[in-house]
Amino acid sequence: LISLILVSHAQGDYYEDYIFFMDDEDLIPLTPVSHPQGNPKTVVSIKPNAHVYRGERVIFRCDMHGLVDTEWKYHWYKNDQSLGHQLYYRDYDRSCRYHGYHRFHRRHRFFQDCSERRVQEFIIWPVSDFDSGDYTCRGVLSHSQSSEISDAVTLIVSERPQVVLSVSPQSWLTEEDSVTLNCEVTDSSTGWTFSWYKDYGEIKDSHGEIMAGGSYHLSDSSLIHKGVYMCRAEKRESSLRFLSNHQPVWITGKSPPVSMIINPNRTQHFTGDSLLLSCEDQSNSTGWTVRRYTHSEGVLDCSRWGSVTGSTCNISSISTGVYWCDSESGENSNPVNITVHDGDVILESPVHSVTEGHLLTLRCLYRNTNFSNLQADFYKDGSVFQTQTTGEMIIYNVSRSDEGFYHCKHPERGESPKSWVSVRGPSGLGGSSSVEAAFSVLMLICSVVTASPYLLVTIILLLKCYRAR
């Protein structure tokens, strides 16, 4: 004789039916079957986060709390309004197929041809401000049985953050100066990771690993560090990566192998001016090319914006940018920042670095020179430095403290753009320093002799007495 025994056991919100077969000898248990006590509860989850940025991909999922049943179908709501077919989603069990596509406000919406839809998950991509709101779902098993509606989960869509790359203390350096690049995200959230790029290539450390962290420090800069830097910010759980602005870093070498000669010899020019740039080689390198960097176009060779003859670049109408010479072997000149101004006033300043102890001469130049009032105020780093009635300013014994950004201002004609003036030490001149030093001593002696021939005779007699001893 075999009997069937049903035993019910409550477990929280559910009860379980235990079915036993009983023969004359033993009880044989079968697998218990769970049933909800009342309507089951659904739960909405959002990946990667409930707070996302425009353009990200967001995945919504509706789960039946404590139940796994493939027969459940799911209805979705946004702000208590049925979403219906206003979804595009992926169907993980492949029971439905995509059959249509159309464009709606620049967004792609996909629909499914399904006789029985089970939309447990759906995707919004790319997400926009329109998609912000409270999302809920409900499970339906049959006309007579459905779940409770889930608690609402709020999706917040924010404007994409900006990644700002800045440089401190400045982007124009002298060789061996230190500089720090900082990468910051205009967003209050945390968990950002960073990577660094120079001239569009990844920066790696001595172990071949990609440089990371929110700052990049160079304690002893050299010419190889010259270039255009970028950083990238991302979060591990996000599908988006954010690139910063381009930040050039220009480094003036102490003894570059080549000099770029500019004619006319100044860094500021009026609109419509023509210009001749040539590379004066000191190291017998071949294949010198004049290059230019602008924020809008990046790095381009002279052949793209001028006419090339050997190592000379002829420009009929110059543009604002940073210019330098590059060789096929990778050597380069010091960069020169050339500014084109459509106003009436420009500043004439040295194209290359000024040596400590030498003269520094700055002049205010005007588009129309037919006027007598040449008075000008000269500014250094934004503050008035000198006022001159001749339109010319001279620093007789220049030092590193005179390095900075200069511009001039005329009371009637306006002001010039700013130009960077760099100062280098005597040791940076290499072989030419001894020549100029000897020349300076010779000039001093000539001046003394011209002023007092009796002093020269006295010096000679003193030398003879010293040798006689």
From TrEMBL:
GO cellular component, one term: external side of plasma membrane
A single GO molecular function term of this UniProt record: transmembrane signaling receptor activity
Pfam families for this protein: ig (PF00047), Ig_2 (PF13895), Ig_3 (PF13927)
Any single biological process term in GO: cell surface receptor signaling pathway
InterPro entries per the UniProt record, alphabetical: Ig-like_dom (IPR007110), Ig-like_dom_sf (IPR036179), Ig-like_fold (IPR013783), Ig_Fc_receptor (IPR050488), Ig_sub (IPR003599), Ig_sub2 (IPR003598), Immunoglobulin_dom (IPR013151)
Ig-like domain boundaries: 40-150, 161-241, 335-408
Membrane spanning stretches: 437-463
Origin superkingdom: Eukaryota
Keywords, alphabetical: Disulfide bond, Immunoglobulin domain, Membrane, Receptor, Signal, Transmembrane, Transmembrane helix
Designated name of the protein: Fc receptor-like protein 5 isoform X1
The species this protein was found in: Clarias magur (Asian catfish)
Organism classification: Eukaryota, Metazoa, Chordata, Craniata, Vertebrata
